[in-house]
Amino acid sequence: MVSAAEQLASNLNLGAFAKAQDLKNRIWFTLGALIIYRLGTFIPIPGVDAGAFAAAFKSQSSGILGMFNVFAGGAVERMAIFALNIMPYISASIIIQLMTSLSPKLEALKKEGESGRKQINQYTRYLTLVLAAFQAYGIAIGLEGSRSEAGAVVGDPGWFFRLTTVITLVGGTMFLMWLGEQITQRGVGNGISLIIFAGIVAGLPSALVGLFEMARTGALSTFLLLALLVLMLAVVAAIVFIERAQRRLLIQYPKRQVGNRMFQGDASHLPLKLNSAGVIPPIFASSLLLLPITVAQFSSTQGGGPEWLQGIVASLGHGQPLYLAVYISLIIFFAFFYTAVVFNPKDTADNLRKHGGFLPGIRPGEKTAEYIDYVLTRITVVGAIYLAAVCVMPEILTSYAAVPFYFGGTSLLIAVSVTMDTVAQIQSHLLAHQYEGLIKKAKLRGATGRGRR
Fold first, then answer.
1. pLDDT band at residue 10 using 50, 70 and 90 as cut-offs
2. Is 251 exposed, middle or buried (CB count within 10 Å of its CB: 0-12, 13-18, 19+)?
3. Span 140-158, mean pLDDT?
4. Contact at 8 Å (CB) between 198 and 38?
5. pLDDT per residue as tens digits for the range 69-100
6. SS3 for 356?
């Protein structure tokens, strides 16, 4: 049976959107903020020879730099002021979340409500500043030691270049962090996710052009091109289906008596997402796997590395059995690990008991927590297998056909998930606007009826 909210959502049209002035302002603000972000990805940091760095980047574009270049919208390839992108903030957020589950002080802050959340956000900002400064200094040192066929990447190395590079990159990251918060508060969708989404989507047109150019020149067969396009559509369909999938646990509330009247007990559901970890597992797994490849490439440019390192890197090449096995193992591990961080069955069971709710046939308290943990573990197995399949199947084809990172499972997963979340928020705004209109009409009719009497 279709609920009233679902029926109202199905009736959303352009007329309702045209009347929702607040929603239009939010969308325009979001678009303006993303345009500012895109302009920043084309402003280079001072002191870097763009041609020499582009030549040096090509030799390492298949490593971790290539993956982060996709997330940064090409800012790494151009060594722009937003080259670090929002990654230090994401790393800081994950570290703070991990520490919250381990530190009683942070856990107490989390339970304090809005004030505690603001304090934890402040800690996240401080940690972002530290991580961004550390990474920016490492980039400055790496740029000074980089050379290509076009010459040295940095024409005037020294402490002045390092200081300006650190200030520029840290300032860019902090600005993006602030911009993401502004989008979340005054725009539509999650600002941090939209910034990463904009970076990925910005490179899709050029990647598609390059893909068809490879097919035209014969570097990519027509069969592989069609197979890649079909696989992309299948991956998008699988992401949409799984990300919306939920396991709903029935929650019942007992009957209650108010005065002389007996009210029937209510019933609701506890939704458990099939993929509670989101896109964190493939991002972590990709970073850990691409790191040794990048280190070996850097060692080879400096005069060669140890043979054992070269052997490991050869076994961890794209499409190799060891690479796929380790990649799948890391995704599954981080899926379970991050799900345990973001969802606590014991807290959920305690909240249900405080509000008088219970699961039919399950005793409140510890037994409820054990049952929720049992169900969550089972559905996380399915979610982890889904993440591994989405990320590994395109990986096999892209490594075989040598197509860009843009068509990897991680990029598609982020792009589709953020799009779904943003559309859901827009629909929520439209629903709220229509409910407000209905309430105003009802009040107006009521006042008119009383006036006639």
1. very low
2. middle
3. 77
4. yes
5. 776 777 777 888 888 888 888 778 877 877 87
6. coil
> 3-class DSSP state for residue 61?
coil
131/92 Cα distance (integer angstroms): 7
From residue 326, how far is each of 294, 323, 406, 427 by CA, in Å? 17, 5, 22, 40
Find, among 384, 421, 400, 410, the residue nearest to 183 by Cα. Answer: 421
- Compute φ and ψ for 279, nearest 5 degrees: -95, 5
DSSP 248: E
In contact, 243 and 390? CB cutoff 8 Å: no
Q: Which of 198, 190, 236, 239 is nearest to 90 (CA)?
A: 190
CB atoms inside a 10 Å sphere around CB 10: 9
Whether the model pTM is above 0.90: no
Got the DSSP string for 62-106?
TSHHHHHHHHTTTTTTTTBTTTTTTHHHHHHHHHHHHHHHH-HHH
d(CA 204, CA 232): 13
Tokens of 199: 């970076």
Q: What is the full DSSP assignment across 156-217?
A: S-SHHHHHHHHHHHHHHHHHHHHHHHHHHHHSSS-HHHHHHHHHHHHTHHHHHHHHHHHHHH
